[in-house]
Amino acid sequence: MAHRRRPLARAFLLNTIVLVVELVGGVQASSLSLIVDGVHNLSDEMALGFLVLAYTLRQGLSGRLLRAANLFNSVGLMAISVVLLWQVVERFSQPVPVLGVVPVVAGIVGAAGNWGVARVLREPAREDAAIRLAYVHNLGDTLLSLGPAVAGALVLASGRPLFDTVVALVIAGIILVTTIRSVAGSHEELLWPENVACGHE
Ligand SMILES: [Zn+2]
Q1: pLDDT digits (tens, 9 = 90+) for 41-54
Q2: CA–CA dist 44, 41 (Å, integer)
Q3: How far is the CA of 36 from the centre of ligand 1 (A)?
Q4: Largest CB tally within 10 Å, which of 151, 155, 156, 192?
Q5: Could you report the per-residue pLDDT of 64-87, keeping only the tens digit for each?
Q6: How much is the pTM?
Q7: 29, 151 in Cβ contact below 8 A?
Q8: Which residues hold their Cβ within 5 A of ligand 1, which is an ion?
């Protein structure tokens, strides 16, 4: 167990850096694309936290509890995504100046951090289904975090904050669709939690 806890703890730490940089940067620069990606990484943080817990507790966590936690997390992320989409709509009617250099830098930090998370999980993912899911997910997140960087570059080049709003809309849409699909796809596992990898060995 301990040999899996260490890479998971490292992934958790890297993800913490990503979400702090993105959320603080997003609020400071009024960058919605950064805030949306930061909130998404906050949800990933909870999922990673439960994995760390599952491999830290001597008796592990039951598959049922892990599933319930992930479902709760997914529903929370969907709810927040809808709120953020509403903010995006408001931004379209009332544009706010965006400090473009911040999403460029924070987006690159976010992409590097998510790539780092995937990198440290690659080894343990070979033999553990739950960690493999996190590994594949964070590989995708590496691309998603480049969104704010692209948005910031377009704002800098054009002087128009609209690009940040458009990218925020795209990222929020991707998060909403992939989360709904993963909840729908895990339906069978929710019914038969004993089939799911958990802290036991
Ligand atoms: Zn994610």
Answers
A1: 999 999 899 888 88
A2: 5
A3: 11
A4: 151
A5: 777 788 888 888 888 999 999 999
A6: 0.86
A7: no
A8: 44, 141
